[in-house]
Amino acid sequence: MHAARSIAVAAAVLVSGLGLRAAADRLQAPSLELPATILIHGGTFQMGSDELDVAAAAELCRAQPDDAPLCQAALFSDEQPRHRVYVSAYRIDRTEVAQRDYQRCMQHGVCAPPRVLDSDARLALPDLPVVGITAAEAATYCGWLGGRLPTEAEWERAARGSTTRRFPWGQHWNSRVANHGLSGHRPGPLDGYDYASPVSAFRDGRSPYGLLNMAGNVWEWTGDRYDAAFYAGSAAVDPQGATTGDELVIRGGSWRSPPATLRVTQRAGLKRTESRPDVGFRCAYNVP
Is residue 57 located within the same domain as residue 99? Predict the structure, then answer.
């Protein structure tokens, strides 16, 4: 029975495209459940925002009275210029990494505990995204599965597909298909969650490739260094981010973010040594 389970796990790894090396590692962990991944074929897409997108972002930002004084087009200048990028084939997790999956990595003695109490029902239930970890800790988990953190270009392509849509689900803001920071007219949030939501929630807000929660729920670490001016000199093929700096790019906004922050082009930087209760991640995998 033990051998049968090991063979089944190894086969699942190969089917998921994680490679022979990862398959050998999994033979030592027969109880491991591998994540559902999406294959994204190599291709080009338009990365970043044009002038109309930036104007729309500023207008959406000004719709929130508390943010209005700050909502100038310059706030979104790091998303410019829009530029064509070719991204090689890769796989990426369909959902953000859940607490239950990260716990398995801890049980195998590989991953460090997150900086969120297990008793915190707002953030630490098994089907909620794992938060309270640094970029290095997120990368350790991905490496354990034979993967890595996605590049910024991989993340954006998975969120918008080959389109120029502003949100994973389409061109216009929809308060009902993402976990965000707006409240309704009655007490409570418009999206039904005060804090984090399950990683499989909001299926109507999925991206063109079928990824969930690419907008809202938790910000997601990427493996690229952040530079506000990076797009001006970005490589046209598989860009890898800035070469200097101690901040990494985070993407997607979170459960406490306003609408403008949930656009697929929104960029932000966070020190790689920081951890926050609204920052999680998903993994990417090279395709042999």
Answer: yes
Closest to 152 (Cα-Cα) out of 65, 71, 245: 245
Q: 93 pairs with which residues across the strands?
A: 37
In whole angstroms, what is the distance from residue 19 CA to residue 285 CA?
9
Residue 50's domain spans which residues? Answer: 37-286
DSSP characters for 172-188? S--TTSSB-S-B-SSSS
Residues 6+ away with beta carbon under 8 Å from 256: 181, 278
pLDDT of residue 7: 34
Here the CATH number for the domain that contains residue 238 is 3.90.1580.10
Q: What is the pTM of this model?
A: 0.87
- Residues in the chain predicted with pLDDT less than 50, given as ranges, are 1-30
- 135 with 101, same domain? yes
* Maximum separation of any 2 CA atoms in the chain, in Å: 64
Cα–Cα distance measured from residue 220 to residue 42, given in angstroms and rounded to the nearest whole number: 22
Q: State the pLDDT at residue 78.
A: 97
61 Cβ partners below 8 Å, 6+ apart? 67, 68, 70, 71, 75, 258, 259, 260
- What is the DSSP secondary-structure string of 267-281? -EEEETT---TTEE-
Asked if residue 8 and residue 53 are part of one domain, the reply reads no
